[in-house]
């Protein structure tokens, strides 16, 4: 009896649950390069190269281990371009009597998979993805028993459950969270070591040629492709991060510096999301570095919180809130995506730099995504689906399960605050404090209104005034309305007029698009 084990492009883990307990002699692994997956949004070219190259390397590693792998290339004759079409063909090629597959990361693909049993009329076992530390069911149980779904409470449970940075029943060092120590802007002491790059090998070069040929008009440049494409490379990237950048990770976690794209960040999300690195192992490594006194507690805790806290919480929220989350638009934002999100052509130096990094690296770090790109879209009222699609296209680590709650919930407050207790709206003052962007900008961050004033300043107030009814009752933000009410009438009018003039001159996207 042949068991067919489809392994999806983001399931590239040797210990994937679908292979556990399978006999090599009676198992065929199916891996598929698919037109539908490559084009459901017009992914950044680096993401396509990353996924296809990592898939090809993984298939070769499985074959070296003695597994039979049926690998369908994008240009192979007869490739139907869809998961269902390729599984159907493989069932007949291998006379398969059973399918074992790990659940899909995305709603869209999970829906397809749930129809396989009826479509193919054979046994289909869909297994939980145990690379996540919290199952969907555990998350639902946690979420259903609460009014407020605070990440911090979830995180504490995950710390207790994993035992990471615990001292008996108490958090290591006496505090759960050292975020207050993690808010330095860029400074003269900051000297980030370079992130290791992995120049394309023969396999990757072949994929680069394929992507240029078939997806040459997608967003982004391939010139600086440097992502790990194998588990071995990802392990090396992790070693270097723990040794060289983790010690300062906490301190400069929220800092931004012009032209410095990586700072002290891990650059590990692409590897973790593909399955090249195990998230729990990554956290254990960070903990070990702390216990060996190689990194301070604020760095190890801050980093571990991102993974067992934020990453797990975001994934849980995705499944808990779907499918409504994709349509959510609590602020009734209707503006089209501005043109410069595709071109980077704007005088706003912060946005121009974040978009340049996005185009060149298929990456921007968290604060750039949240407080520059997300914040601008929030305060100008960009339609959530326009921004969701853009974020899904442009980042090499983007999969809907992680992109959507971050964009819709965290950045845009489109879910009415179920994920973020207050909107992450900020004026130029925040960006100036956390970056060196403003010093070289054509706009003056100190000016509040007028042609050369930082646009974030008036847009911030315009946003708060537009949504006063909603936010006045929010304890975490309502104090700002006191400040607004105390301002001179003429000053308030100038703010609103500046913002209106700016918005009237904000061209919508015409040169780029997220979907075919
Ligand atoms: P580091 O800053 O070094 O953090 C370490 C790890 O923590 C990351 O590798 C990642 O696995 C995890 N992590 C940190 N924050 C988050 C978070 N909010 N959600 C999930 N995991 C987190 N991350 C993605 O992987 N894919 C996305 O599509 C994505 N879209 C985002 C969109 C917005 C609007 C925002 C605000 C954040 C988004 N993030 C996304 C989260 C975060 O920005 C990236 O995980 C991070 O920038 C990846 O770089 P890094 O590995 O250097 O992360
Ligand atoms: C992201 C992606 C891309 C671009 N291409 C493929 C592919 O050709 N074959 C494949 O198996 N997976 C691909 N993926 C990842 C899938 O989209 C991913 O498995 C889902 O997003 C998770 O449900
Ligand atoms: Fe951005 Fe305003 Fe600073 Fe310019 S002045 S970099 S627009 S925050």
3D architecture notes:
Helices cover 49% and strands 6% of the residues. It has 516 residues and is of the alpha/beta class. It is globular and about 80 Å long. The two termini are 41 Å apart. Bound molecules: flavin-adenine dinucleotide (FAD), ligand DLZ and iron/sulfur cluster. The site of flavin-adenine dinucleotide (FAD) has 28 residues, from helix 10, helix 12, helix 16 and helix 18. InterPro entries: Crypto/Photolyase_FAD-like_sf (IPR036134), PhrB-like (IPR007357), Rossmann-like_a/b/a_fold (IPR014729), UV-DNA_repair_photolyase (IPR052551). This is Cryptochrome/photolyase family protein. It comes from Novosphingobium rhizovicinum.
Topology:
Layout: E1 2-6, E2 27-32, H1 35-39, H2 45-64, E3 68-72, H3 83-94, E4 96-102, H4 107-114, H5 116-120, E5 123-127, H6 136-144, H7 151-162, E6 166-167, E7 170-171, H8 202-215, H9 231-249, H10 269-274, H11 279-291, H12 297-321, H13 324-327, H14 340-343, H15 349-361, H16 366-380, H17 384-394, H18 400-411, H19 428-434, H20 455-466, H21 468-471, H22 479-486, H23 489-504
Parallel strand pairs: 1-2, 1-4, 2-3, 4-5
Antiparallel strand pairs: 6-7
The protein binds flavin-adenine dinucleotide (FAD), ligand DLZ and iron/sulfur cluster.
């Amino acid at each position: 009896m042949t068991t067919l084990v489809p392994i999806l492009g983001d399931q590239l883990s040797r210990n994937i649950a679908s292979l556990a307990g399978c006999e090599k002699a009676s198992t065929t692994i199916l891996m598929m390069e698919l037109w539908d997956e490559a084009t459901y949004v017009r992914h950044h070219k680096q993401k396509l190269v990353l996924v296809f190259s990592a898939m090809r390397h993984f298939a070769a590693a499985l074959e070296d281990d003695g597994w039979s792998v049926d690998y369908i290339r994008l240009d192979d004759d007869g490739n139907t371009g869809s998961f269902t079409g390729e599984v159907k063909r493989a069932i007949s090629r291998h006379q398969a009597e059973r399918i074992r597959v790990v659940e899909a990361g995305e709603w869209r693909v999970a829906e397809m998979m749930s129809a396989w049993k009826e479509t193919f009329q054979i046994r289909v076992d869909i297994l939980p993805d145990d690379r996540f530390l919290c199952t969907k069911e555990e998350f639902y149980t946690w979420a259903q028993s609460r009014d407020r779904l605070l990440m911090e409470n979830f995180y504490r449970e995950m710390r207790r459950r994993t035992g990471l940075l615990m001292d008996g029943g108490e958090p290591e060092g006496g505090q759960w969270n050292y975020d207050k120590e993690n808010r330095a802007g860029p400074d003269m002491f900051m000297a980030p070591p370079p992130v290791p790059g992995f120049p394309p090998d023969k396999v990757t070069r072949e994929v680069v040629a394929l992507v240029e040929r078939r997806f040459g008009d997608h967003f982004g440049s391939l010139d600086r492709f440097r992502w790990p494409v194998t588990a071995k490379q990802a392990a090396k990237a992790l070693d270097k991060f723990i040794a060289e950048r983790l010690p300062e990770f906490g301190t400069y976690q929220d800092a931004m510096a012009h032209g410095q794209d990586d700072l002290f960040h891990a650059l590990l999300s692409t590897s973790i999301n593909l399955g090249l690195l195990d998230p729990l192992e990554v956290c254990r490594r960070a903990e070990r570095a702390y216990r060996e006194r190689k990194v301070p507690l604020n760095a190890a805790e801050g980093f571990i919180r991102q993974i067992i806290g934020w990453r797990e919480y975001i994934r849980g929220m995705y499944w808990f809130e779907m499918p409504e989350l994709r349509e959510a638009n609590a602020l009734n934002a209707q503006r089209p995506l501005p043109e410069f999100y595709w071109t980077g052509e704007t005088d706003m130096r912060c946005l121009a730099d974040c978009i340049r990094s996005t185009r060149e690296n298929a990456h921007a770090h968290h604060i750039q995504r949240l407080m520059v790109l997300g914040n601008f879209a929030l305060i100008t009222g960009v339609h959530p689906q326009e921004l969701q699609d853009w974020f899904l296209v442009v980042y090499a680590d983007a999969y809907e399960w992680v992109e959507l709650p971050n964009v819709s919930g965290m950045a845009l407050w489109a879910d009415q605050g179920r994920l973020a207790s207050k909107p992450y709206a900020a004026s130029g003052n925040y960006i100036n404090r956390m970056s060196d962007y403003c010093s070289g900008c054509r706009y003056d961050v100190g000016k509040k209104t007028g042609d050369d004033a930082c646009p974030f300043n008036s847009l911030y107030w315009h946003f708060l005034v537009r949504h006063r009814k909603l936010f006045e009752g929010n304890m975490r933000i309502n104090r700002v309305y006191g400040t607004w009410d105390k301002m001179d009438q003429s000053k308030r009018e100038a703010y609103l007029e500046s913002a209106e003039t700016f918005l009237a001159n904000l061209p919508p996207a015409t040169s780029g698009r997220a979907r075919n």
